[in-house]
Amino acid sequence: MGAQRNKKMEARDVRLDFYNGRMNSELPVLDGIDLTVYEGELLAIVGPSGCGKSTFLGAVDGLVAVSGGEIRVDGVRVDRPGCDRAMVFQNDSLFPWRTVVENVSYGLDIQNKLSKSARLDRAMSLVELVGLKGFEKHFPHELSGGMRQRVNIARALATDPELLLLDEPFAALDAQTREFMQVELLKILGRAGKTAVFITHQIDEAIFLANRVAVFSARPAKVQAIVEVDLPAHRSLDIKLEPRFRDMQEHIWRLIEAESARTGLITSTVGA
Hints:
Shape: globular
CATH architecture of the domain at 1-77 and 195-272: 3-Layer(aba) Sandwich
Helix content: 25-40%
Largest sheet: 6 strands, mixed
Order of helices and strands: EEEHEEEHHHHEHEHEEH
CATH superfamily of the domain at 1-77 and 195-272: P-loop containing nucleotide triphosphate hydrolases
CATH class of the domain at 1-77 and 195-272: Alpha Beta
Strand content: 15-25%
Distance between the termini: 38 Å
CATH topology of the domain at 1-77 and 195-272: Rossmann fold
Strand order of the largest sheet: 6-7-8-3-9-10
Number of helices: 8
């Protein structure tokens, strides 16, 4: 038995239905999600397209109200957005009129808890953390897509959240940049010492980044499986070529493939 791990986030029997007023009907999206995220880990969530992964993350952030069950962060029930959580979306959503350091400091400016000089110091330390020292006075249009997402991550970290929520943050990047950003994210989270939940459609990305991978069923989503990722903490992209990595990738794909076939998202299995 290993040391007991502290629970950072708990979802218990989380259910969520969307009401369609025009059709006067309810669409069940989440159907009894039970999930725990432990302090210091990155938990990745994968599943069939449209299964409710992003909806669940929105519920954890407090942006979406659940229909039943509960979500707790550090033991406190989530019923609204809070400073203990920060979301990173697929699009960088930076303010084009603010420089890099001004974008990073935005949340601190809104909170107004620190002096102006302290906010600048905090923002500059995060600019350096994400590897953008020397670009602090650049505007978003002067940066590459990967650099803009680094700014986005730094902005999310600025208010020192307990839980970082990442909703397909690399989906809009080209394949090469996406691979490099996976490595960079592990470095950034390791230095910041943060707990994270990461949504992705890419199984290899989930395995490379995560301590554990939660596989959602088709909508209405349940947790179909939890896959422990038994890989070294310090990872390079070469690990994706190792047989155990490929075995995990195949296992998770088969779970998703079976769900997609069951619900008619695909009509036949591949390589069966």
